[in-house]
Each structure stands twice: as C-alpha cells, then as structure tokens.
C-alpha cells in the first residue's frame, strides 16, 4: 500500500490540500485531526475540563470514534452520531490541542489510523503522522504557512460558515496552539527528518497539490 503522511501546524491547509490530492490520486483521505476533534467535542459536551487528565483517561473507554465515507468524503462518527458539523469551532480547536497531549487519547486513535493505512492507499494528515503514526511512509510532507496567513484562512473559513470571529484573536490562538503542539511531551509537532518541507504562504491550493503529487511520484 502507498501511504502519504502530511504533517503541519494548525491552519496550514492540510485537510483541504490532502482531500484534493487524494482525489487526484484516487487515494482514501484520512483526517486524523477530525478524529481528535470528535473526542474533544465529547469532553466539551460532558463538561470535562481539559486539564482534568484523570477524568479524561477514565472516560476515554466510553468514547467510540470511527470514520465512514459518503461519496468519498470522510464522516466522523462519535458514539453513533455524525459530528462533522460540530467539530470545526475555535472552542473545539483549542480543546483538541489541550487533550491531544495525553497518551491515552492518542492511543485511542492510533490503532484505527494504522489499520486504515495498512488496508488502503491513504493520504493521512495530522501533527505526528510521519514521526509516530506512519513512520515508514515513503512520502512525507511537512506543510506550513506563516501564522498571519493561517489566521487569514481560518477567519475566511469561519465567516463562510456564518461564525462571528476576530482575526487577531485567531492569530493569537494559532500561535499559542503552535507553541503547545511543538512542546508537548507526547508526539510533539515536528518535521520528520525525511519529510519534504512545503511553505504554502504564497502558493495557491493547486500549486501545493501539484507539489505533493510530484513529491509522491519521486518517492514512491
């Protein structure tokens, strides 16, 4: 099986890019961040604080996260409910960053992610795909962009969803999340030694997709 691992910070466009590249290559797209977001949503709904690692560890056994595909689009199922429409808020984003540092949360999803990669040609994106989840993937990409550009993209995305937000606050949140993701003890965000760096700050979506496909063709 061919696996493409795409890592990078929040708002770098990983999901958008990976979806388009997967479609062109006829691969399955696996959005691991959406899986973590589903778990974060569960704890928000349950009123569990992000710093309460003990309760989070205990309640992880009550969470069932799976993925389904409808017309090629990934649907995240949380305890039987499709939660795709509820996991893209800034509140869920910050909760995701806060709880994904806990080993019990990462272990919850690791096996599912590896099973998918063993069974299908996949493009998988996240924070630690090339370093931890799929360390043997032949094609690894580290996709990034400036914090200002990532904030602009996230702001545009939220406005299009009808969500009121402040672009300056979004940029501050992105910088804070970068700091947290890069410095957590478990599976920190970092570029794998054999990953190709792509800075998409001044690139169009199609240019980034083409760069990823070119990298795949050169490394497969």
Reading the helices and strands in chain order gives: EHEHHEEEHHEHEHHEH
Shape: globular
Return the average pLDDT rounded to an integer. 93
Oligomer: single chain
Beta-strand portion reads 15-25%
Tally of separate helices: 9
Helicity level, as a percent range?
A: 40-55%
Q: Name the structural class.
A: alpha/beta
- Low-pLDDT ranges: none
The major beta sheet can be summarized as:
5 strands, parallel
C-alpha termini separation: 10 Å
DSSP strand tally? 8
List keywords for this structure.
220 residues; alpha/beta; five-stranded parallel β-sheet; three-stranded antiparallel β-sheet; 9 helices; 8 strands; globular
Provide a descriptive summary of the structure in words:
This protein is α/β, with parallel strands linked by helices and 220 residues long. It is 51% helix and 17% strand. It is built from nine helices and eight strands. It has helices spanning 14-25, 32-46, 53-59, 90-99, 103-119, 129-133, 147-160, 167-183, 205-219; strands at residues 3-7, 28-31, 65-70, 73-78, 81-82, 122-126, 139-144, 196-199. Strands 2-6-1-7-8 form a five-stranded parallel sheet, sandwiched between helices. A hairpin with a 2-residue loop joins strand 3 (65-70) and strand 4 (73-78). The longest helix is centred in the middle third of the chain and has 17 residues, at 103-119. The chain is globular, with a radius of gyration of 16 Å. 37% of the residues are buried.
């Amino acid at each position: 099986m061919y696996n493409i691992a795409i890592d990078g910070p929040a708002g770098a466009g990983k999901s958008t890019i990976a979806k388009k590249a997967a479609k062109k290559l006829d691969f399955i797209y696996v959005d691991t961040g959406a899986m973590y977001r589903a778990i974060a949503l569960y704890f928000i709904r349950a009123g569990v604080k992000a710093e309460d690692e003990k309760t989070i560890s205990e309640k992880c056994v009550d969470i069932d996260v799976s993925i389904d595909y409808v017309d090629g689009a990934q649907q995240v199922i949380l305890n039987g409910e499709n939660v795709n429409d509820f996991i893209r808020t800034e509140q869920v984003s910050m909760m995701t960053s806060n709880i994904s540092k806990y080993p019990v949360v990462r272990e919850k999803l690791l096996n599912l992610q590896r099973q998918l990669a063993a069974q299908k040609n996949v493009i998988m994106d996240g924070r630690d795909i090339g370093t931890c989840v799929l360390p043997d993937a032949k094609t690894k990409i580290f996709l990034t962009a400036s914090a200002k550009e990532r904030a602009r993209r996230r702001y545009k995305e939220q406005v299009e969803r009808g969500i009121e937000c402040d672009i300056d606050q979004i940029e501050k949140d992105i910088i804070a999340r970068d700091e947290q993701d890069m410095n957590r003890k478990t599976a920190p965000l970092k570029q794998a030694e054999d990953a190709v760096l792509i800075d998409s700050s001044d690139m169009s979506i199609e240019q980034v997709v083409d760069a990823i496909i070119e990298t795949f063709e050169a490394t497969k």
